[in-house]
Request: fold
Amino acid sequence: MAIGETTATGSVPTTQMSGREATAAAERRSVRKRWLLVSPALAIIGLVGIMPLAIIAVYSFLSPGPYAGISWDPTLEAWLNVFMERDIFDETLGINYAHASIVTRSFVLAFVTMILALIVGFPTAYFIATRPDKQRYLWLFIISLPFWSNLLVRTFAMMLVLRDNGYINSSLIYLNVIEKPLEIIFTNTAVGIGLTYAYLPLMVMPLYASMEKLDFRLIEAGYDLYGNRWKVLWRIVIPLVRPGIIAGCILVFIPAIGAYVTPKLLGGGKNLMVGNLIANQFGTSRDWPLGSAISLFLMLMVMVALIIYVRNVISEADKNA
Amino acid sequence: MRLTSLIAAGVGLVFAAGQATAGELHFYNWGNYTDPKVLEKFTAETGIDITLDGYDSNDMMLAKVKAGGSGYDLAVPSGFMVKIMTDEGLIQKAGVNQMANFKNVEDQWVDVYFDPGREYSVPWQWGSTGISLNTKYYDGPKSDSWALVFDPPEELKNRINMVSEMSDVIAAGLFYLGLPQCNGNKADLKKLNDMLQSAKEDWRTIDYGIVEKMTSEDVYASHNWNGASMRARRVIPEIKYIYPKEGLNAWMDNVVLLSDAKNVDEAKVFMNFLMAPENAGMISSFAGYANAIKGSAEFMNPDMAEAPEIVGYEGAGKPEFIPPCTQEVQAMYTKIWNNLLK
Amino acid sequence: MPDTVALPPRSRPFDVRYMPGFTSMAWLCLIGLYAPLLIMAFFSFNESRSVTTFTDFSFRWYQIAADNAGVKDATILSLKLAALSTVFATIAATMAGLATTRTRSFKGQAFVFAVINQPLMIPEIVTAVGTLTFFGIIKQVTGIQSFGFLVLAHTVFCIPFAYMPIRARLEDMDLTFEHVAADLYASPWKAFRYVTFPMMLPGIIAGAMLAFVISLDDVIISLLVAGAGETTLPVWMIGQLRRGLTPEVNAISTVLLGVTIIFVSFFFFLTFRKRK
Reply:
């Protein structure tokens, strides 16, 4: 049919042309239409999103300026400093353990956050998806409501709970469970809790979106086959909601690894994550090229992690199917 | 299509809306450092609208100004930062010493190392960086020394905060070790580096928001600025400001005119306004620091006149102003600081 | 062979809605999400500064907060910024969504996806610093100072967030309706306006809401890219968090929370009323 390749917005009366010509013309038109439609998004992001990246990339090959900014002396020193460091006093080169530990901490925290969000979010999404229709929207509303409040408000509320004279400690002391306050705040744990708290709704929503489309008759059929809820979960439900799981995990992992505000507030300046490390370079540490190099390095690692993850999850699911 | 022209108009409107109009001024200052009433008074007296935005470190302010097109007319760098900005061409001469109220500036503050004769800057406030100690938790023998933060007693371990400013921390470290300031001697610096690294174990945080941390008792002692300490004492009376006996550094924040300022005339009016005693007094009362203007004392809060944070006490260490060091020394300091912050 | 397999007796009739532990987890999640916020709201009415002992009911902190002119300006600015960014981002995302879904793969598809999702892939601090520099150069060269720069920066990261629900919704809609419209001689524009657009609407709304919230929440990009007089609400709050007056921030946060609840409730009500 001559109209075969139309996009949602185009179809062409073909009374004047031959069949093949009409198809080709329609196709050219639809291709043009497609690129036209996509152009604002591409233009905005392309210019304002990608140009800064290019600048950062260029900076990573320059030298730090005397007090801030850069000086136009190309060098690979910044990239070297991402992985190695020169001892301040005897100029020997050694592995930059501090950077390594910060990057590791960031990955671990982001990963733990993702897993925690999954553990808490999956049952929650499933629960909501299995409520009767009317209740469902109410539940969705209630669960997503905290998300609409400002991130800072939520992080700040979490600080109130976690600090030395905060809610958890005061309650535990009151109940005589402990004598001295637990030092929760300003540790890795606090940052992990804070991150999970901040990004949990980002896990629940895509999961729910996937689960809403679940055909529950399949699950019932599965139960008839396996007789065991957990098997049904593992063999049937999870593969069916795989897109939701992937989306949720990505939406939690990536912001978590680049987080700045949460570790700054809850980490107190000693438990740096990569986002803080980078920010320091542009501020108090006055090494813009190093900050740029670390940024690019982080981006590359995130992309690699993403590719590995998506490939693994896809192949895993294919094996099980 | 109608839609696209509508969008184009909208975009144009948004961009056009921001053009500078006469009679306005953009002020960039440290957070929580400017009394809003002072700004209202200025607008009432001169009719110039003034906006205020905040930063929490010299470096962040420098980064934004250096990136260009910040839109600010005035900023408030610390002394050493004034010198840096002058060298980098980021600020312009404002002819401060020609202004009407210049006669009010106390004589000792006219010729400062970062701006001899006051061409560029108007003094805003000055103070010292010592230690805030919550004496509820410790009041023992180390209470008059930097040892509180560099070699802390048991009670304070993991309850200490340090300021996140390189110059303050390094200066304090050098004072503690009894080494000269602006030190380029590698052996000395190695001692400093090792001492800082081992002291870091006992620090809980290296962050701003010090008043908040002290009043919520997340930390019991902190490297702190004297005015902030006074504000903390208003909430918890047991908080004492320590002038360590080994010495401590003093600093002065100054208002400067940025090179790419769009409202130069209005800025100069404001700079002049700041040197009037009643305004300086208001400014000081808000944040709790001394200023450099004669006759402002009568306009300040009465509790400031005798506050130990401002006037000192028996046996207090002497605050000294430390000029910025040479580039090589600065570079070494930066390395030590980065080493610490990691 | 028997025709039926003997099944183990079921302990209880199978109800697909019930998974052991899931209900408790959901409730835990709910409590965990709300507890800190409720505590904060509760103690904002506290006479004393403490967050653990409730001494007396008082509006004290609210009165102090009301005097604070900074919060009003910052809130209005944030709302303006979020509204503008959302409008631009949603329009761009809708157009992009229409172009990239429900077609067979086309040349440059991966490229388009990569570009559209690029803001999501990068830590915000990187974008913030790069954008600061980029805009700085432009501002120096052209001398334009404008709110538009901040709007532009926000639009960039709002687009991928708006795009996701729109795309998801579009993928659920097949082309049958549009083909029917074409068969009835509707022009492409009419088909869009009367068929596609109304069907897409929930996705567009979801995308717009997501973009709005993301813009409202943004801290680090607003902190660095904002020009003079463009202090947004989160930036203002960070400045306040540095102060010692915690309870005042409590009060302000509670008010913000309340406003959000009202706004979102209204929206949800509106949207889901339509569905029934």
Q: What stands out?
A: Residues 19-59 of chain A form the longest helix (41 residues). Chain A has 13 helices and four strands. Chain A has two domains: 1-56, 98-320. Confidence is low (pLDDT under 50) at residues 1-11 of chain A.
